[in-house]
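We modelled the chain as a single entity of 386 amino acids. Its sequence is:
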Amino acid sequence: MNIKNILKKGILFILVFTLIISAPSTLVFGQEVNVQQQQEIDLQQELEFLGNLLKLIKANYAYEVTEKQLIEGAMKGLFYNLDDYSNYYTEEEFKELNEIVSGDFGGIGIHIIEKNGNIEVVTPIKDTPGFKAGIQPGDIIVSVDDADIKGITSKKATELMRGEPGTKVKLGIVREGEPKVLYLDIVRELITINPIEYEILKDNIGYIKITEFNNHTLENVLKAMGHFNINKVDKIIFDVRNNPGGSLSEVINVLRFLVPRGPIVHVKYSDGEIETHYSYNDEVNFKLAVLVNKGSASASEIFAGAIQDTKVGTIIGTTTFGKGTVQTIVPLVNGGGIKLTIAEYLTANQNPVNKIGIKPDIVVENTTKEDLQLKKAIEVLKAIKN
């Protein structure tokens, strides 16, 4: 080993050794240090430590890495010791998060899956650009803007097809029975995700499936309930199985049409303050059953808990996930953002949910191909006399 290498390794060792042994000082010359001052001194030294660590990595890491990448990694690391629902998002990740929460995005409106290394269309969403362009279930998308996409993930394919409303995307499609690749130029539009499916079952029982509580849940639940009113349906099954949650305000607004006057949910903040959200409904017009399972989380548990505590319906299925915390989403000046847990929620009767879940009034597991939980809900509502 030559002298140059020895010196280089020696300098690196000194820098690493300095980073490791540096400890916060507890003295400020000429004055006594109070606790707050000491905390500020400690924080400043830790930030200097972090800066030196960044320089060390940048100067000696074997592969190319930018300062921006290192800083983003450090910002993600701030959330490492927090709960699973608090995170830092890069600009691209934050855009995707907002699309999920709002239920709106620029795109062509098709559902796709990965199948045998290909991107296959499950179905186009009615009245979207993809639907109007004639995309069909079973179509294989082989290129996006003339770039071959074979072998990529459905997530990546989705990212390629999404974009600003009004912009064009060119798809290459292989269709069974067609000898050549079909090329479609499609203009993206603002796609709105409707999280509601509804129908009237036998015995005049309404059924509403809520896949998530996004910004369009209330308006579509009200459409379903209006349809039920016209058809004199007063017994409704709400299905929130495998619903991961969503907007706190949206689930509260839906519940205000379903539960009687009084508390819906209590939100308890870190300082002990409790904020209570109320229903002002003096007329409860529906008899309800709610289907839940271990995939029902967050806003779905608020929904089930309020129905259960106010006794306006029966909860059927299996114990829910147990995510009883509330997050806030904060945009940052760099285009990214954070999602931070700021509170826990309690049900109308002030029962905790976090890591506990909502236990159904009637426990039913789906152990066969038949939907036994739905079957039980129908039985329960049929037994209620008008």
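As a brief sanity check on the tokenised model: The longest helix spans residues 35-60. Residues 3-30 have pLDDT under 50 and may be disordered.
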